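ok so I'm stuck.
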Amino acid sequence: MSEGKVETTISNGIATVQFMHPQSNSLPGTLLMSLAAEIEKTGNNKDAKVIILKSEGEKTFCAGASFDELISIADLATGKKFFSGFAAVINAMRKAPKFVIARVQGKAVGGGVGLASAADYTLATEAASVKLSELNVGIGPFVVGPAVERKIGTSAFSSMSINASEWMDAEWAREKGMYVNTYPTIVELDKAVDELAGKLAQSNPEAMAMLKKVFWKGTEDWDTLLSERAEMSGKLVLSEFTKNFISKFKQGAR
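replied:
not stuck anymore, here's the structure
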């Protein structure tokens, strides 16, 4: 349970990939790799026509990187491997020959913002605020940056990255294009997600796969780019600044 879990169900052409972690759906390395593998496998499953990405619980969609794992990183190789997990998930979503709908029922931080941005179509509740807090931790949103910038533009991405302590509300995220629409309740969100997924499950798979390639044109270098970005984050996470920040944060949380 401490590592969380990833589960996939497929019904009537709709694949639902759901992840959870007891610490606000944060993402340790093992969970990241499991999530990436599950999305890749589901993308290649002929029974799946569309993919819904969701997390358990109500208040938090994804709290980003696991602080417990971040503070335990002791060398560059381990740091790069950890952040490569985020790269793997984003690339799996990018390469899946099916549309990925993200269902964001609560707050998203750091890597969680990356997941919401890497989806092809993202719907959220009005409580789904977003924050790129990486600079506060002493690193930066390097790995998720390309996905976020592609979705909301350089100006909005820069604002989120620089003002790393401020939550941007769901309406801001909708206006910038991260969310297609927002809903007052999770019940209404789920209804909208299910209706869209149902329509897509009846659409032409070949046409959707071709459209997906069109949408992601220009990202063919992301395997290399995100690997380079993972190394940047892996180096910075070793700094005394980051170690001290996480230690103080965890002490304050007790």
